[in-house]
Amino acid sequence: MYQTVHGDQSVDLDSLHRLINEGYDMQMRPFVDGPPVNVSVGMMITSIHSISDISMDFGVTMFLVENWEDPRLIFNGTDPVDLRSGSELLAKIWTPDLYYVNVKEGYLHQVTTTNKQLRVSPGGHVTYDIRVSLTLICYMSLHRFPMDRQSCGIDMESFGYTTKDVRLSWNNDIGVMIPPDVVMPGFEIESPTIEQTEILYPMGYYDRLECRYSLHRELIFYIMEHYVPSMLLVILSWISFWLSVDATPARASLGITTVLTLTTLSSGARVELPKVSYTKAIDVWMLVCSFYVFAALLEFAIASYYHKYKRCESISLSALEDAVHLMKETSFTKMGPTIVNQNRQFSNDCFSMTNGNVLEHNYNYMNLDTRVQMPQNDTIGNVTDAEQERVKYENIAKNIDRYSRILFPATFVLYNCVYWPMYLKDYWLIR
Known about the structure:
Blueprint: H1 8-21, E1 37-52, E2 57-69, E3 81-84, E4 98-100, E5 103-108, E6 116-120, E7 125-137, E8 149-158, E9 166-170, E10 176-177, E11 187-189, E12 193-201, E13 204-217, H2 220-237, H3 248-271, H4 281-308, H5 311-329, H6 332-343, H7 348-351, H8 356-365, H9 368-372, H10 376-429
Parallel strand pairs: 1-9, 1-10
Antiparallel strand pairs: 1-2, 2-7, 3-6, 4-8, 5-7, 6-7, 8-13, 11-13, 12-13
């Protein structure tokens, strides 16, 4: 069943129909005993979409236009004949066997009808136009992710014809066209470059048409989604340096919360990427941020240790001194329980380290004269030395916090001064 035509085209179509039915062999290429067929190829890309860092591929929809000469199709006429979908002549004419080298999958559009058309001119010039959607492989290097540039492409070859039979070239008028309104989510597309090469296979040399275009990743999404939150978490962890060392619950909760939150944020950033064996730029950032947050928590542990060191011993000796004075002025039978109760009022952090039970035991079993005659001067001397030790270590703990308030922000600013210029320099240069 032929397509509907009018006027002179009906005559031309009849002439072409007779020509094809009288000895035309679609299995044989044009110039079968002569020079190779020159096929010029052009592409008009209508969309680039669905780029995936994990599977390393992207989707593209295009019009593929092929042109060649077939002297067997020369007929007497004035106008070209268009053979669209549904024409039986369309399936009887020889067409190049192009395929996409780096394709994963693809299909010919069939909505609302099969999207292909073939135009035959009276002089034997043939134009073949199809609309296809493809998923193509794009191997990516993610060392500088997300400040990276990827080079993706579309490669085409003839599957069964070597350079002795078919020569491929880019169409000088069309080449590869990407309309200005074609955008890719998350990337900025550069103008494509085209090239023709010869590839050696076991069957011989084959022409390959290569189209390459660079994709610059848009950075703003990753700054707002990963860099800014992680930076704020690092700054938040520094608040503990301004809290009192005695505020153990507050500082511990703050440190643990920032560590866990940053760990979750870092895991979320890796979910969107393939499991590669090398370190990416965002991995370096997250690793350093995790180090700062963990270091802030470790700083609190060290400061807390020094703050409590010798403190319990000082409290125990002070209690013993008070006990000696009270026993001299009153009878132990009245004040002993009070002394013991006072000894139990010490801080929970230190009570397990004091000799409160020893005091209580000794008070119960020493006679009153022995208790009254306990040496006061040695006790007072010990209390003074312990108090000095306690103050010394408390000052060390406070100094650790003071130095951390300066050291942590200063080194983090220095790290930013190295990290961002190192990666952004190449990022802007390649743009």
